[in-house]
Amino acid sequence: MDPLAIFNLCEAFLWFFIAAFFFFRAASGNGLVGKKKVFAALGVILVFFGASDLIEMKTGAWWRPEGLLALKAACVIGLVLCLFLVYGAPPVLKRWISFLATYLRGPTHP
Q1: Residue 104 CB neighbours (<10 A)
Q2: 5 Cβ neighbours under 8 A, 6+ residues apart
Q3: What is the spatial distance between Cα 86 and Cα 42, in angstroms, rounded to a whole number?
Q4: Omega before 65 cis (within 30°)?
Q5: Disulfide engineering: 78 pairs with which of 8, 14, 45, 86, CB 3.0-4.6 Å?
Q6: Do 71 and 48 contact (CB within 8 A), yes or no?
Q7: Can you tell me the distance from the alpha carbon of 29 to that of 35, in angstroms, rounded to the nearest whole number?
Q8: E-strand spans in the chain?
Q9: Helices within 33-65 (DSSP H only)
Q10: Cβ within 8 Å of residue 49, ≥6 positions away
């Protein structure tokens, strides 16, 4: 097994370990009112991320095949969304969303 494959295997086990932590946090629920579902979602996302590393170990590249790239992109987007759900969106992102919503709404005429 080449060094890159060994690295991907270790990385996959790291994601699986972190996923187990989030599953445990979701199941225990100590002081996590309203966060159980987010932590469970994080666990699922990290399991898929770990699986993508196992696939990457076989393909040798994170962008081949295209489905692997899409899976990794979906995992990263899911992780960012969960981060926003736990900590809230940064103020600059809130301003951009407000600006875009106003822009897409179009001109208002009385």
Answers
A1: 7
A2: 57, 60
A3: 11
A4: yes
A5: 45
A6: yes
A7: 8
A8: none
A9: 36-59
A10: 15, 72, 75, 79
